[in-house]
Design goal:
The protein is built from twelve helices and 17 strands. It has about 350 residues and is an alpha/beta fold. Helix 3 packs across helix 4, helix 3 runs parallel beside helix 5 and helix 4 crosses helix 5. Bound molecules: adenosine-5'-diphosphate and magnesium ion (MG). The site of adenosine-5'-diphosphate (ADP) has 11 residues, from helix 1. Adenosine-5'-diphosphate binds next to helix 1.
């Protein structure tokens, strides 16, 4: 069980991202945090494993306040899955999956045997074990991310937009597999998504947040659909229809804005704004916050985000990528994977409106 009691997060710049939030994520169930862009979902999730510390209030894991226990050992009980999987690019698939068990001093052969079982569980056969992340598709990488999070058999799982980086067809497959695995494993899961359909499909319990991390409603999918607590929730539930229509409109190059970029290991040329990061192969992997960056960009500085392909992406895919990204802009690449720029949520919505959607 994970409990939030009157939790507040005010960032250093004075912005209150989460206001007096209380809810309980029950043991063995999936709790989904859903709400519009910037409403405080990621902040709420990252307070659970103390990647962000709360300003006030209490978060309890299994009855114990997280502020009272050793953060490092606590995190080993929490699987963490993020968009684009956040795999270590220089490690093979199996070594990625074994990361936490080896830290926990599990014997190497046992860790590898379990990793192979988990890869099978998420639908990847043994032939993937010795490949590197860049040799896998986005959907396959996401599966590895889930296997890695499960490897230490943690009682808790935190998932931040885990399926937002893949196209809707693969996303549906991943969701189905995830539900099948959860039926067996019964982890206590808190998942973040901006996609109300995903929330309704996966959640045993849904926590709807609005601007400033204020609770709009909490309930089962059936309860929300039958009785939205207020107009905000009703509107949010209703939005999904317009959102699907976006699948039929292609991404337009017109509003792609030029962005700064940097490779992992290099220093930034700018001091403010968000900069696109690519790996040693030149593949775009995510964003770094220039205002908070000190020294060369390291892997742990990267906010993993998937890029959308200008030629292939539709507006829904672009909107998903933008809503799931830390600065709410989707990274746009050409058909060869080369960086073209970024496009913001507001621009995507405007493009769709100008097409009559
Ligand atoms: P969501 O995941 O729902 O899109 P976030 O939790 O990432 O939202 O952000 C909530 C709000 O807090 C946003 O307005 C965002 O701009 C702001 N925010 C996030 N991180 C920081 C930070 N490090 N400093 C200041 N403001 C932040
Ligand atoms: Mg977020």
């Amino acid at each position: 069980m994970i409990e939030f009691e009157n939790v507040v997060k005010t960032y250093d710049n004075g912005h209150t991202a989460v206001s007096n939030l209380s809810f309980t994520a029950p043991t063995g169930k999936i709790t989904v945090l859903v709400g519009p862009s910037g409403c405080g979902k990621t902040t709420t999730l990252r307070m659970i494993n103390r990647l962000i510390t709360e300003t006030s209030g209490t978060i309890r894991l299994g009855g114990t306040a997280t502020s009272q226990v050793d953060t490092i050992s606590m995190r080993r009980n929490i699987g963490y899955v993020i968009q684009n999987a956040g795999l270590f690019p220089h490690r093979t698939i199996i070594d990625n999956v074994c990361t936490v068990p080896l830290l926990k001093k599990v014997e190497k052969s046992a860790a590898r045997a379990r990793a192979l079982e988990l890869l099978t569980l998420v639908g990847l056969d043994a032939s993937y074990a010795d490949r590197y992340p860049w040799q896998l598709s986005g959907g396959q990488q996401q599966r590895v991310g889930v296997a890695r999070a499960l490897a230490a058999d943690p009682p808790y799982m935190l998932m931040d937009e885990p399926f937002s980086a893949v196209d809707p067809v693969v996303r549906k497959q991943l969701q189905d597999e995830f539900l099948r695995i959860q039926a067996e494993m019964a982890k206590t899961i808190v998942m973040v998504t901006h996609d109300i359909d995903e929330a309704l499909r996966l959640g045993d319990q849904i926590v709807v947040l609005r601007e400033g991390g204020n609770l709009a409603q909490i309930g089962s999918p059936e309860e929300l659909l039958a009785q939205p607590a207020n107009e905000f929730v009703a509107d949010f539930l209703g939005e999904s229809r317009g959102y699907h229509a976006l699948s039929f409109a292609s991404l337009d190059s017109a509003r792609v804005r030029a962005v700064e970029s940097v490779r992992i290991g290099e220093a930034l040329r700018v001091r403010a704004g968000w900069v696109v990061v690519s790996n040693a192969n030149g593949d775009v992997v995510g964003w770094v916050n220039a205002a908070r960056q000190q020294g060369p960009v390291e892997i742990h500085d990267v906010h993993w985000s998937s890029a959308v392909n200008l030629r292939e992406a539709n507006l829904r895919r672009a909107l998903d990528a933008a809503l799931a990204s830390p600065n709410h802009e989707a990274i746009v690449v050409d058909e060869f994977g080369a960086l073209r720029g970024a496009v913001a949520v507001a621009d995507i919505i405007q493009m769709s409106e100008s097409r009559g959607h």
